[in-house]
């Protein structure tokens, strides 16, 4: 795939470069023993590699050596990110030790810091050596800097309006529905109405537009009809020239955009026209405004049909109708398959091939409208693994911004047909360092924007379960898996593959019984970042203690995501959990944990802690205030009897499902007043321990987005009302 490895890496490298330039990073290293020249060299090498990624993306599809180079580069960059993350964690640890530690602990920390920098310098040199070796191979492979090579144009051949109706299956209802909306002159207040056909690549958007365009009713209704293939590379002059040539049926040698638009305007003047703009990617509203100016010379009832895989394009063009194309019915899909698989359309009816063919159709999830194009494409020259990825789908991925490409690739961790929760996925992205806060938006809000982009481009589809659950079409799932390569592994689904030392993300669907042997292959993946247990219809009744004591935790010091939810027999976490300092997401919901180890409070990077429905858990570790990066603390359905002291110091906290007011120091209702970012459901218990109206007022509940029950809010408001009346009585 021409755009896979490098596209991910460009976003990756930028994150590393930005981190090395951050104020916190620079301040911590200033005056330390670490060789400043090493990091400068580090940054220089990353920049030198970044400039050839664009060329490498193109060449890897036909050059296995370039593909291997990109793969090794990504592996090295992962390791580089781990090293920089260790330095950032050490900086945070030193800061917290200065705030909370005793004099003796501060002395010990200075000694440990000196040892740390000796070790980290060796690791930097090792990674730097690998990067230098990879950079030295650029010239040998003929890789050149971006901008010095001619970019290959669209992978997709230009479309035309021609279609053979008898070859099309299952789109008659869509065609009739479109025509019913297309023909009425008063269907919209706008003189020129835009109708958009939206769907994922390969669904048959172009085919539907061709069917509508060539229908006799449509041809007779409009004075002029024209077909223009816009495609991915949008050039205002070229598109306008193509439109002029389409509406005049003649070539044009005009070199000026103004003259082109005047000619188009003149040609459309006083006519009711139909213009099809096929395969539109550009969603810039200003570009559309300029392009569409000549169209306004047409009369009422003129129409423009746009095909696109991005719903944002339809919005930019102000489409008054957006037709979301659905998958073919299975029987229609079988008819299409049989027509192309057999030379004689009737020979398959009683053939031994029919049963097998129908299974193939079912496996393809009835999304085969472009098989005839695939038959004659270069896809057959690709590897066995690549052959499953339709070129039309590769384009959807190619046009994603690089920072969203990483988010999409991470989704390969989900099996086919798996429903994932929007908010859960955003938290996982955040834990993996794929989201970065800005002055105006939180990481969660940015993740929400990325998610909307993937939905709008038909890469995610809404589940029928509820508005927060989504899934990926099987072909999209294949694309995500191919993009992520060896770096993601699904424990059951990937039985034909092996876990390698490059593997960073592992998921599996739990079963009734998990023994240690099942997880032995993970010993190869010592730099694992994600260990994610996925929900299933059956709860897991047992998991071996060796998984945590001897296997998983001691081995995976780079973990950022650890999920062990729904293990009903999981009753303890080992103290060694505190050594996994990169950990940002920890879920141990629906287990029988009776306590959490105090070492949990050493996980200074922890952002999300999920403890819902842990029926045996009563208390949390006392030093929770040290988890300064904690943003989501969810213990819904867990009978916590007291809130950790000084929870108000967790300034990043957005989710706090329960707050138990007590008379202990650091547990009063005023702690809530310090949590300015709280949102979502919040249950307040122990309101009888609110000692004064001053404390009630100090909770600042009126300034929060948190959802608090009416009865709890009434109690606090009542205390404030008492204060008001007392003040009035005293005057």
From TrEMBL:
InterPro entries: LRR_R13L4/SHOC2-like, NB-ARC, Rx_N, WHD_DRP. One of its GO terms (molecular function) is ADP binding. This is Disease resistance RPP13-like protein 1. It comes from Carya illinoinensis (Pecan). It comes from the Eukaryota. Keywords: ATP-binding, Nucleotide-binding, Plant defense, Repeat. Residues 9-102 form the Disease resistance N-terminal domain. The keyword Nucleus does not apply. Residues 413-480 form the Disease resistance protein winged helix domain. Residues 553-703 form the Disease resistance R13L4/SHOC-2-like LRR domain.
